[in-house]
Amino acid sequence: MIRLLLFRSLKLRVALIVAGAGLLALSSSASRQEVLEPQPLHIPHVDRAPKLSDFIDGTPREAEMVVTDFKQYDPHDGAPISQATTAYLSYDSKNLYVGWICKDDPSQIRARVAPRKLIGADDRVTIIIDTFQDHKHAYWFDVNPYGVQYDGRTTDGIGDDSSWETLWYSDGRITKDGYAVLETIPFRSLRFPHAEQQNWSIALGRLIMRTNEFALWPFVSHKRDPQFVGQFAPVSIDANISAGRNIQLIPYALYSRDNYLDTTNGFMLQTENHLGLDAKAVIHDALTLDVALNPDFSEIGSDDPKVQVNQRYEVIFPERRPFFLENASIFSMPEQLFFSRRIVDPQLGVKITGAMGRWGLGGLIADDRAPGEVLAQGVTGHGQRALDTVFRGEREFGHQSHVGMFLSNTTFDSTSNRVGSLDVRYLGPNNWSAIGQATATQTHGPDRGYLADTGYVAGLSKNDTHTNFFTYFTDRGPDLVATLGYLDRTDIRWWEALYNYQWKPSAGHQLLAYGPSTYAALNYDHQGRLQNWMFWPGFSITLPKLTSLSFSRHESFELYQDIGFHESSTNISLGTSWYRWLQLSANYSLGKQPNYYPAAGVLPFLGDANNASATLTLRPHTHLRLDQIYYYTRLATGTDAPAPSLPTGDVFTNHLIRSKINYQFNRDYSFRAIFDYTALLPNADLVSSSYAKQADTTLLFTYMPHPGTALYVGYADTFQNVNYDEAANPQYTATTLPGTSTDRQVFVKFSYLLRF
Fold first, then answer.
1. Please, which residues have CB within 8 angstroms of residue 350's CB and are 6 or more apart in sequence?
2. Which domains does the chain have, with CATH numbers?
3. What's the mean per-residue pLDDT of the chain?
4. Global pTM?
5. According to the model, what pLDDT value does residue 641 have?
């Protein structure tokens, strides 16, 4: 049970009282203002479910809502769509149907038979549905010409969340004059209020990648940004439909056999068998209850590599575990006070999320075995578990504005952390929006005793067809602690501002957009000492076929370990998908950067930095995809060498290489091979890193007919630059090449979706 955080800061009490009173006044005033909605269009009921062949062969169908007037959202706001497109909507007692006929030259269509959700570079169609008509949250369902699905949620002011997924059906086929698609969306896969008549807001869209084109019905314009969902068209379903009894059970079984090199005991063999259950129930057609017993938190997928050497702040990876993904956007706030990957290894988790009228709710409770597992036997806390609880409530007012509250509590052994926060987002006239947040934390622990502090965020932004502007102020006290969140640093008073202007020539020009941008920031700690300043001007150009080019210059000051560094870099970035079979992005920067982790006895110093990255995707065949990723990071001594007695030259060089091959036999079956190579080559006299080389191989066969039901059979092997000899002294010796297998694993995982 989450207990209300006792705010001990009088300053925060006053701020919250004033903010709360103002927000209640705004809410009351806004609730009296009627938002004028156009009369909804009616989606017709059908007795016979349509089939894809009906749209291809011209078979007579029952009554449908027909949409043809698609207008561009990008790149030319308001221009007609370049290719004729027609959508047909209907429903029966169980499903919503959307049929599509998309005219095009078949030789120009960009699409592949791909794994589910990996169609971001494909031509596709979409329906986006705001089932609660709150003008802020919506589900989206994309389909490419081969029927491959891509679903998620979007929230105005936050953006897209592709982690959400549900069970629905799609089919697609390329024809002689374009392609046709049929989407079948079960009502039980949606969340909507119980009512005799459903009133929703929807948008229908088509993406044509070679022209950077995203066209929508109704006309959705950048002139009304940051509203996107807020511009959808109202539609009605004149029937008392219901998601019905919607209970999902996903039992899973995992078997793995792992032969690994333990630093203490040498080579070890470990066999694991896991059984577990993820359960989901929809309450009153609106709230979702998730329960996980010995939850399936294994990650079959592999995160793309990130540069982690010489990073001042923690490098984080996105959440991908199913239990945390349902309605994850409810926990989004200006400050990231809840980052679900902080809960590492729970045995039991319960979560409830959803919407009731103008209220959005989210609550979570879970244990976590990880804090006790990392402690050595005999150490206080070994084998114990943390208990984590989180609550988030959000009340809409006006049009796309809200006030929210967040509470969290985590306890482990004799340590506890409590967080309370109040936030607001207000959408004003003329594309202006404002955000604010006040946070208080309390931490108890044997190491640092009792800590309590506060934090504040205030921001103002404006977005329209040509302009992107924001300015934020963030104040975090030195003792502000959010154990379940992600705060990269505290003891800051950070002001930042960005202004970006894009000229957009009229239709017919190859140059789609171009313009300058400027970012500036200033940061002082609570003692008034300058910590950072930044100035970052740039210029970007956008061309057809997803081609963009940008230049920027970075000048900054950073105080690190009481040493001031004047840093700089020149940066260039390129991205293109000029050909259907190729996608390329590349970045290069040259400048000055500190050595954040110098060797013992060496002070941090400024070095010459070279950073480069390149991602290449090749699609030589409809079913085959090849990905190559390369990161190069180098730091060398420059004019600001640490000391005459120390060597000059490279401080370190880091290479990250990933090669990925995916062959999709059909929409359900695929095979994937990943080959990773990492090399860290440090100068031990200058940096506190060790020489390391590692090569990884992962082979994975997947059968996934739909979300929740899947079979994985995999093999993984890791080679490192170490030699182990049990009889030798020392037993471990470093080698030049990664020639020793230190972790070899075979695994099988099966899960099955049951719906009631």
1. 289, 290, 291, 292, 364, 365, 366
2. 35-237 (2.60.40.1190), 314-488 (no CATH)
3. 89
4. 0.86
5. 63
